[in-house]
Amino acid sequence: MRTKQLILLCVMASLVAATHHNLVSARSTRKSAPGSGRLAAAAFEIANEVFLNAEDVAYEHPLKPASRQVARIDGRLAARTDCSGFMSYVLNKAAPAPQYAAVMDLARREYREDQERKGRAPRDDRPFYPDAKEYADFFATLSTRTPSDGWIGVQSVWDLRRGDLIAWAKENWDGKGNSGHVAMVMEPPSRQLVEAIAVERNREGVSHEVRVKCVNIRVLDSSSVSHFGDEQLPPRVAPRQQQRDGVGTGYIRLVLDSAGVPIRYWEGYYWGEGQTDIKTPGRSSNIHFGRLVD
Fold first, then answer.
1. What's the domain range around 63?
2. Coil, helix or strand for 84?
3. Across-strand partners of 265?
4. Cα–Cα distance for residue pair 41/45, rounded to 1 Å
5. From residue 60, how far is each of 12, 177, 291 by CA, in Å?
6. Residues 199, 271: Cα–Cα separation, whole Å
7. How many domains is the chain partitioned into structurally?
8. 57 vs 199: CA distance, rounded Å
């Protein structure tokens, strides 16, 4: 009897081991975007160094190339730049070619096409750097399986890692004001969704409250919007900033559809530039993620 039990136990152990081996093999052969590597880590360190050491910080739209978006002035590190200016500075320093050059190529092409539609002659020195919409457009072209120009797309919000970039374009943007937003991921997002109350209008224009479930993502960026959660402002700016005005860290929120595709963005709760509360997430069909690859 004992011999039969031992044989049965051995057979069961073999089956468990085989099943485990098959699962491991399946996982190892599944194709996915490569994890964040040396370039992504270098880009994050550059961005974080600006956050930690900048003494002159403000959210502005300087008409300067990427290399001059952050600079030392009279010995003090100054970062007076917007979201895409800051990310362009970081990318141009960490991965000028082919990564940043590829985004600039798309930005120049879209700029020329826009000027031609308006019947204007394109200027050779424009754009100074890509805007947020152009980052989103560029990430939309990326394969999530095959790297191109030192980039690869990130298919799911749950695959985001430190150093990845998030970009979105405003829906039906008219060319005035900010075109969207671009930010750098600080850590993988929690899978626990945040339930928030948004204020929206129905077809009759009447405001009402709705509950939305969001993904919380901690980012490092330049913004005039006060982010959610434990927002951190640059520590070396004196006097200390009282609200977000440029480089900082905090949480943004994305709303996913039933297939896990991001369809709405919520940068924060207060827009400093426009002195306006942000009570609801915006809608966009152009929210995409990009990852630097070595």
1. 34-292
2. helix
3. 254, 282
4. 6
5. 66, 12, 26
6. 16
7. 1
8. 32
Q: Give the type of residue at 199.
A: V
75 found inside a domain: yes
Rounded distance between C-alpha atoms, residue 265 and residue 212, angstroms? 11
Both tokens of 104, joined, read 């600039």
Cβ contact 233:55 at 8 Å: no
Question: Per the domain annotation, does 222 fall within a domain?
Answer: yes
State how far the Cα of 272 lies from the Cα of 210, in Å rounded to an integer.
Answer: 24
Single-letter amino acid code for the residue at 149: D
pLDDT by residue for the chain (294 residues), tens only, comes to 434 443 333 333 443 334 343 333 333 333 446 666 999 999 999 999 999 999 999 999 999 999 999 999 999 999 999 999 999 999 999 999 999 999 999 999 999 999 999 999 999 999 999 999 999 999 999 999 999 999 999 999 999 999 999 999 999 888 888 999 999 999 999 999 999 999 998 888 899 999 999 999 999 999 999 999 999 999 999 999 999 999 999 999 999 999 999 999 999 999 999 999 999 999 999 999 999 999
**Per-residue tokens: 30:** 């599944």
Closest by CA to 79, choosing from 51, 57, 47, is 57
3-state secondary structure of 80: strand
H or E element that contains 132? helix 132-140
Domain annotation covers residue 25 = no
Does residue 58 belong to any structural domain of this protein?
yes
